[in-house]
Design goal:
alpha/beta; seven-stranded mixed β-sheet
Amino acid sequence: MCKDSVVEYKESMVTQVALFGAGGKMGYRLSINLKASDFTVKHVEVSEAGCERLQTDLGITCCTTEDALDGADVVILAVPDTVIGKLAHSIVPALKAGTMVITLDPAAAFAGHLPERSDIVYFVTHPCHPDIFRNNTLMDAKTDFFGGSQATQHIVSALMQGPEDQYAIGEKVAKTIYAPVDRSHRVTVDQMALLEPGLSETVCASLLTVMREAMDEVVSRGVEKQVARDFLLGHMSILGAVLFDEIDGQFSDACNKAIVNGKPMLFKDDWKRVFDPEEIAESIRRIT
């Protein structure tokens, strides 16, 4: 039997998914998409409010951990980073050989919080979220900033442990829970950690927070808030389009001079050390 046939056969056998944290912020989103899929899903939620929400909104009844793990091919841990290690250590010993465990963030995997067991599969996947230059025409898609609902997004995934042919299975689940998906990128767990928390949170979220504080400072100095907001967001759009090659353009001479003078005031010369392995590890240690 050729390799492609093996993958196709194994995919057809993956029918039962155990979703932990099914009624939480992320788990609820996954529950919606999995409900519309071909997978048989068993939902686990410790919150009474979360269980009630699943039942009322989606007609989903939660079950016990034991029931969810009975016959599960894939286990998704849609729980906070601080809980993943404890939860994984409590359920992984009970899993049948070959079961795939999926985390939705690289933090716990990178930090070594997943228990050692050589006969199961560890798969990590995370959404990119709809990008700011998306061209969705439907209003529902335009207001779906998170993704996984109306707006198309890209995703990243890593096969941390397990046979190579298991990647296709994990990717199939990932495309289902984050649908609609356009580009599906394969990375390593270490690379995903550079992306998050490194690129997306330590750098992007920090800079956006500073930009909001800068807008508030301009307002405090007399500019009307709506004027400052319109001006900043408009410039974010055009400047971003030029910087990220969305359009063929260039900054004005005045803008380039402002950047040369502004960067030393805003950033330390060694700011890129936030991507050094020890800094990424320390950031993840704080998160988990």
